[in-house]
Amino acid sequence: MSGGLFFSARNLRSGDRRLWHWGWLPVGAATVLTIVGWEAIGTTEPGYAQRQLAFIPIALAAAAAIGVLHPRWMDRWAIPLYVASLVLLLFVLMPGVPEALVRPRKGARRWINLVVIDFQPSELAKIGLILVLAQWLRAREDVARLQGLVIPVALASVPFVLILVEPDLGTALTLAPTAAAMLLAAGCRRRHLAIGVVAAALLAPASYPFLKPHQRARVDALLAQVVGDTRYSRDIGFQADRAMTLIGAGGVAGQGEDGAQRLLETNALPEEHNDMIFSSIACRWGLGGSMLVLAACSALCLGAVAVAVSVRDAGGRLVAIGIGSLLATQVIVNIGMNVGLLPITGMTLPFVSYGGTSLVASWIMVGMLWSVASARRADTLRAAFQLQR
């Protein structure tokens, strides 16, 4: 296959697209989540809901523009997008940058002020990493050997470290499962990945002294919560305690809009429109609303896997696997911290939490899935991409 393209020009004509494919499933799931998120944000933050509503057509337009593009763009723009994301991640960390451009919030430097929107370079880094890993892995056959993992691990480690320094632990943690899933799909031996997972598990406790004070406190609060110790429930553990209380208050039928507003205001849940949006949904719509969100999130992630399985090209399959694993990690971590199973890390719920950059980036990934799924092709895969290893 010449030119290093995902799709061979002789096997795919520009207008040769399929109408019925698995790309419809992520589109439908993302639509449901976007609507639920907008309604949930408006429960206590009508102003934020109006801002979110303004970004919805922008996000949909971006997804549509990406979806109709020839999938070759992913290969052509992989390195430029990856490099651009690293430059922007470095920019927000540079000392001396005017606060008018990069204003720290709660000690974190994550956003670039573009007047109409606060842009998060980490969102671009997610997409850039998926594309550059797909480009590298699709053409390599040495990924089954340990030395073949050096470059992919390095590609993932650079944005991981930069995002961690911001600090944004939640976003940084999404990159590792994403890279691992793509490596597995590309033919990495399971025992090599297992070694990495075991090493990370053993090193995690050793990293505790190097965490920032508030991060250590959140780990302490989670461990205390597991054993029924409530001493942190009024300080560092307040957010998790209030989130679980509000989820329980929603019951089966929910409290409705007025009841949820009163409970959310009375309990003063921090970030109820953002990181803790799932608690707001459970409080307002109860078990039914929670199950709807879980079902839509499952359909979104499984849709990405279905796209990966249905395509015959290596690059498209890796892109779909990367997107599916990234979104699945975000969903698991966000809901896990809302229900008290994981420490609070600042992870948003895709398509649901407030945030213009996150919404647009998430819909762009849906557009990427559509682009891959809708293209007709007759390419064949080498054995490593059969997901049988």
Task: Provide a brief overview of the structure.
This protein has a domain at 45-72 and 166-378. 64% of the residues lie in helices and 1% in strands. It has 14 helices and two strands.
Walkthrough of the structure:
By secondary structure, the protein is mostly helical. The protein has a domain at 45-72 and 166-378. Helices cover 64% and strands 1% of the residues. The protein is built from 14 helices and two strands. It has helices at residues 24-41, 46-68, 72-76, 78-93, 121-138, 150-165, 169-186, 190-206, 213-226, 238-250, 256-267, 277-310, 314-338, 356-374, and strands at 112-113, 118-119. Strands 1-2 form a two-stranded antiparallel ribbon. Strand 1 and strand 2 (118-119) form a beta hairpin. The model is unreliable at 1-14 (pLDDT under 50).
The parts where pLDDT drops under 50 for at least 5 residues are 1-14
Radius of gyration: 21 Å
What is the overall shape? Answer: globular
Order of helices and strands: HHHHEEHHHHHHHHHH
* Average residue-wise pLDDT: 84
Q: How much of the polypeptide forms β-strand, as a percent range?
A: under 5%
Distance between the termini: 24 Å
Biggest sheet overview: 2 strands, antiparallel
The helix tally amounts to: 14
Cross-sheet strand order for the largest sheet? 1-2
Helical content stands at 55-70%
Structural class: mainly alpha
DSSP strand count: 2
